[in-house]
Amino acid sequence: MNSPHSRYRIRYYNLFSRVYDRFVAAHSGDREGRLRAALADRSMLESGNRVLDLCTGTGAMLPWLNWGVAGRGLVIGLDFSRGMLTQARRKTRDDPAVVLVEADAERLPFRAGSIDVITCSHALYELKGAGADRALEEVVRVLTPGGRFLMMEHEVPERLAVRLLFYVRLLSMGLRKALEVLGHEEEFFRRHFAGVERANTETGRSKIIIGLGSARPG
């Protein structure tokens, strides 16, 4: 299966993996992992669930998700960057319920209706062009009936330097898509999900958007 990502983009994320955790902490104002704990809590995981962390990056969400399934389910961290997954492996090597998969968010290698919960932390804005729509179509396809998709993303940062980095990252989507999505995430989600909820985080620097059920019948 060919990747939709250019060699340059893959190399960029492989290098970015070395500083990714510090970058996200600076954006979110959360160096203790409280936001990811809150995201895992809102996912309403149960023991034995199958959960996918989409665009898992360095795997910072995976220990929280593993805790949510009580170590008895299956936790999958998926990313197209081998560098990111190398960092994730270091965090999860002692968790037998955690599996890492190198694949694209736009082409999920899972059966329809096979995943109970999907999370995506600080990554959706980095899918280029129509990639975000294709990823959400894949999310809807692989979720079980009644499954939940939870996306956590940054609000626009207040600090000028961090805000500039945020806009550079956002523009990786392409200007048209960035303007379509930023500030309109709930409308964007309603194209794909029958129910959409929004929650604020305790730091006020990130938001959680929750998608429930397919917007398309059948």
Q: Strand sequence of the main sheet, in spatial order?
A: 3-2-1-4-5-7-6
Mean pLDDT figure: 84
CA gyration radius, whole angstroms: 16 Å
Q: Return the string of H and E elements.
A: HHHEHEHEEHEHHHEE
Number of structural units classed as domains: 1
Helix content, binned percent: 25-40%
Number of strands: 7
Structural class: alpha/beta
Explain this structure:
There is one protein chain. The protein has 218 residues and is of the alpha/beta class. The chain has one domain (7-214): Vaccinia Virus protein VP39 (Rossmann fold, 3-Layer(aba) Sandwich), CATH 3.40.50. Helix content is 38%, strand content 24%. The chain is built from nine helices and seven strands. It has a seven-stranded mixed β-sheet. The chain is globular and about 45 Å long. The two termini are 27 Å apart. The mean pLDDT is 84.
